[in-house]
Amino acid sequence: MEALLLGAGLLLGAYVLVYYNLVKAPPCGGIASLRGRTAVVTGANSGIGKMTALELARRGARVVLACRSRERGEAAAFDLRQESGNNEVIFMALDLASLASVRAFATAFLSSEPRLDILIHNAAPAPGISSCGRTHEPFNLLLRVNHIGPFLLTHLLLPRLKTCAPSRVVVVSSAAHRRGHLDFTRLDRPVVGWQQELRAYADSKLANVLFARELATQLEGTGVTCYAAHPGPVNSELFLRHVPGWLSPLLRPLAWLVLRTPRGGAQTPLYCALQEGIEPLSGRYFANCHVEEVPPAARDDRAAHRLWEASKRLAGLGPGQDAEPDEDPQPEDPGTPSSRSSPLSEEPTVSEPHAIPHNSPDLSKVTHRIQVKTEPEP
User: Fold this and answer.
1) N or C: which end of the chain has fewer CB within 10 A?
2) 300 close to 217: Cβ distance less than 8 angstroms
């Protein structure tokens, strides 16, 4: 009996050590008030994205939930308004697998929103997406949703990000990037079978890290900074979505014990979006709210630039079309209530409550730091 109790105590102690050192996420600090600022979070109807949007809303930001499902997106927006007490949480339709949808979203957003301060690319389907009723796409669906769609969206919204600088772009990546390898001769070829999907997922996460790196180079000196963020092992819908039904009851308790909650997974993306003083680290990869070194393939500047050029081609951006011209007027001062027109779309694209504008603080004290991209050699 004593041996049994001792064994149980040792197991409990080991679990506590693992939980607090590997599972539990450090809380995000950063800017306390985001009143007068606007954030876009893709894939924000559940999981990490929803928790990220909740924290931004609690800090007073106007938050746009960019989601594929109207029903789930509008339900999430309603939940977040109720929980945060912030009426400026809205839904806008976005399907990252469709470049036409990405362009429609950008058009609607730019016509209705005068500001964009934070862009968080959270939508990141796991392996198995091609088995979810989308099996006949003539392209690499994982790369399209995880990288090409966000790449195009960033380019289309860059003019607005620049006019609202200092602003930030956060790309939610994964430790799976360490297993990635980009074959530029077959980047967009469809993948078949779970083994190819696992490889394609890792490749798309490597593309995320390289994209953040090259974007930082392209935007140096503009006041727009960008970061790749690893949320850690998270117990979200994606984890059990494609598990066989008979296995799910066995894995759920294990996932609860050893995986982070979606709220915990949101901490590093929030850190990258809100933490002051990390501007010189633009383009770097963050995990557990601090910079983490990446393997050589993820810090290869030549590969990053080559991916940039290939992504422009796959996204339909020809020479001289790095971004759409920003013909909209300059953003209003965050301290001034703004009138927002309805987005131009054949179908209703935006779901927005009647919000009572709240007074916004003076942001004139925000410091514009010099953008210096530094990275020590490992």
Assistant:
1) N
2) no
Q: Which of 88, 50, 51, 85 is nearest to 69 (CA)?
A: 50
Of 15, 20, 201, 227, the active-site residue reads 201
Q: Determine the Cα–Cα distance for residues 211 and 146; give it in Å rounded to an integer.
A: 11
Q: Which helix (H) or strand (E) holds 285?
A: strand 285-287
Q: In whole angstroms, give the CA distance from residue 63 to residue 237.
A: 22
Q: Is 217 exposed, middle or buried (0-12, 13-18, 19+ CB in 10 A)?
A: middle
Phi, psi of 138 (to 5 degrees): -85, 25
Annotation says 201 is catalytic = yes
Strands 167-172 and 285-287: unpaired
* C-alpha span between 306 and 214 (Å, rounded): 10
Neighbours of 251 (CB within 10 A): 15
Q: Which residue has the tokens 């469809």?
A: 190
Using DSSP's 3-state secondary structure scheme, residue 23 falls into helix
Question: Please, are residues 313 and 151 in contact by the beta-carbon 8 Å criterion?
Answer: no
Rounded Cα distance, 301 and 297, in Å: 9
H helix intervals, the chain: 2-18, 47-58, 70-84, 99-112, 141-143, 149-163, 194-218, 237-241, 248-258, 262-265, 267-274, 301-314
Distance CA 225, CA 161 (A): 10
Q: What pTM, to 2 d.p., does this model score?
A: 0.78
Instruction: Please give the Cα distance from 206 to 211 (Å, whole number).
Output: 8
Q: pLDDT tens digits, the chain, 378 residues: what are they? A: 666 655 655 555 554 444 444 455 567 777 789 999 999 999 999 999 999 999 999 999 999 999 999 999 999 999 999 999 999 999 999 999 999 999 999 999 999 999 999 999 998 665 545 444 444 567 888 999 999 999 999 999 999 999 999 999 999 999 999 999 999 998 888 887 778 888 999 999 999 999 999 999 999 999 999 999 999 876 665 555 555 566 666 666 666 566 768 899 999 999 999 999 999 999 999 999 999 999 999 999 999 999 999 999 999 997 655 544 444 444 545 544 443 433 333 344 566 664 444 443 443 333 333 343 444 444
